[in-house]
Amino acid sequence: MVLSERVARFNRVVTNRVTKPFVGVLPGFGLLVHHGRRSGREFRTPLNVFRTDDGFLVALTYGPDADWVRNVLAAGGAEVITRGRKYRVREPELVHDETRGPMPPGVRQFLGLVGVTDFLMLKRE
């Protein structure tokens, strides 16, 4: 079970608007800047992002078919703004990991409760 479409809609309309002003500076959060596959329009999606040795890892709480995931995969990259810094990311890769191993312990348990097993790996340029 990943988060429902109702939760996704609520987050788009309410939560994302409230968190956008500070999501790019708080640890564990980031703003993903990407472009629409068809429209070319710029989107800014607040996410939980976690650093890896060579980039970032994002838990796909709405699954791998979310529009922003498909946009990043189609473009081959995006930008991540986190902790006040902007990073260009490339080589997006979908990863399925039922152990949720790379995630921090508290996050790992929460993701287990909601059934998240898919992640997007992004390499820093």
UniProtKB/TrEMBL annotation:
<dbReference type="InterPro" id="IPR012349">
    <property type="entry name" value="Split_barrel_FMN-bd"/>
</dbReference>
<dbReference type="GO" id="GO:0016491">
    <property type="term" value="F:oxidoreductase activity"/>
</dbReference>
<dbReference type="Pfam" id="PF04075">
    <property type="entry name" value="F420H2_quin_red"/>
</dbReference>
<dbReference type="InterPro" id="IPR004378">
    <property type="entry name" value="F420H2_quin_Rdtase"/>
</dbReference>
<protein>
    <submittedName>
        <fullName>Deazaflavin-dependent oxidoreductase (Nitroreductase family)</fullName>
    </submittedName>
</protein>
